[in-house]
Specification:
With 166 residues, this protein is mainly β. Helix content is 4%, strand content 44%. It contains 1 helix and 8 strands, in the order βββαβββββ. A 6-stranded antiparallel beta barrel has the order 1-2-3-7-5-4. The chain starts with 14 loop residues before the first strand and ends with a strand.
């Protein structure tokens, strides 16, 4: 057997768009620095069986309970005004009656649509939340960078992301 001749996968410069505008309209957040990291996380539980020693033995199978993606980015060029709209951790279009301690980010439509757009790569996450701190560093005479982690869960209908670029 001979390995095929393949090329490296290069997405190209990645634009980051978020839906902080009215009517879920996309706004340009900025450009990534050294790309974006997407962690594809699956949730499982082991199923044990007496044929393998019960709970003390190796699992006989695994049960899948869903997926989520964690999208990590560091932006070297970003729009401060758009980043400020992400700071409360809920979409600015959320009804004021839903905002407060105990609010549900998904049911209150407080999530963000996130579009990652590069010449050879498009991922349109339909519903993301920001669970981790937003970091801006350094703050000083050097150019500041913004670090953000979005978390995407499957939306009703089973979709995590699609390739719609508009």
């Amino acid at each position: 057997m001979t390995a095929p001749n393949i090329c490296a996968v290069v997405a190209g410069p990645c634009e980051v768009w978020v839906d902080t505008g009215t009517a879920r309209a996309l706004e340009f957040l900025g450009w990534s620095l050294n790309g974006i990291t997407i962690e594809e996380i699956a949730y499982h539980t082991p199923i044990h069986s007496d044929e393998n020693g019960g709970d003390q033995g190796p699992p006989a199978d695994y049960q899948l309970f869903g997926h989520r993606h964690r999208i990590l980015m560091e932006l070297s060029k970003f729009q401060d005004a758009v980043l400020a709209k992400l700071d409360p951790r809920y979409n600015p279009n959320t009804s004021s009656g839903s905002v407060g301690v105990g609010m549900l980010l998904g049911c209150a439509t407080a999530s963000f649509r996130l579009l990652l757009k590069a010449p050879n790569f498009v991922r349109n996450y339909l519903a993301t939340v920001i669970l981790d701190p937003i970091e801006i560093s350094p703050v000083g005479s050097q150019a500041s960078r913004a670090r953000i982690a979005f978390t995407a869960n499957v939306v009703p209908g089973g979709t995590l992301w699609n390739t719609t670029a508009t």
